[in-house]
Design goal:
Shape: rod-shaped
Number of strands: 0
Oligomer: single chain
Helix content: 40-55%
Largest sheet: none
Mean pLDDT: 83
Order of helices and strands: HH
């Protein structure tokens, strides 16, 4: 479209002949321009922050205490179970020891059969004290 058709003036010879069309403010004027800084409020007060932190800390310490009590109960239950099963385990170990001791005495009798005056099972140490073996077999080389 040409400018002449937009301005409804057909056959204009020059731009200078065109009527001036200027925008103006809307009726009643423009809204006021906000130029002041909008600073939000500072948030919760120091007392509110302190009380919230203290409450969270207190709740956490309470939970730690509850967990400690539960752990203590579970540990005591575990130790009670171990104390209850200890006689059974000791009996099994004693039975294993007696079998191993008899195997050892048989081996000693076989090895020392040619030694005069040798008494099988008698201690070569004359301390008068019986000391059980620390752990494992009496003689690892005897099967």
């Amino acid at each position: 479209m040409t400018e002449a058709m937009i301005r409804k003036k057909a056959g204009m010879a020059s731009v200078k002949d065109m009527p001036v069309l200027q925008d103006g403010p809307p009726p009643g004027g423009f809204a006021p321009v906000r130029f002041a800084r909008r600073i939000p409020n500072t948030g919760p007060s120091a007392l509110a922050i302190f009380l919230t932190a203290f409450g969270a800390f207190s709740w956490g310490m309470y939970q730690v205490g509850q967990g400690n009590m539960k752990r203590r109960v579970l540990k005591e239950e575990k130790y009670a179970a171990r104390r209850a099963i200890l006689p059974v385990l000791q009996a099994e170990e004693d039975e294993r020891y007696v079998k191993e001791w008899h195997k050892y005495l048989e081996y000693e009798a076989e090895v020392m059969k040619d030694v005069p005056g040798w008494k099988v099972g008698e201690s070569v140490y004359h301390s008068g004290r019986w000391v059980p073996p620390a752990s494992g077999e009496l003689r690892p080389d005897v099967w």
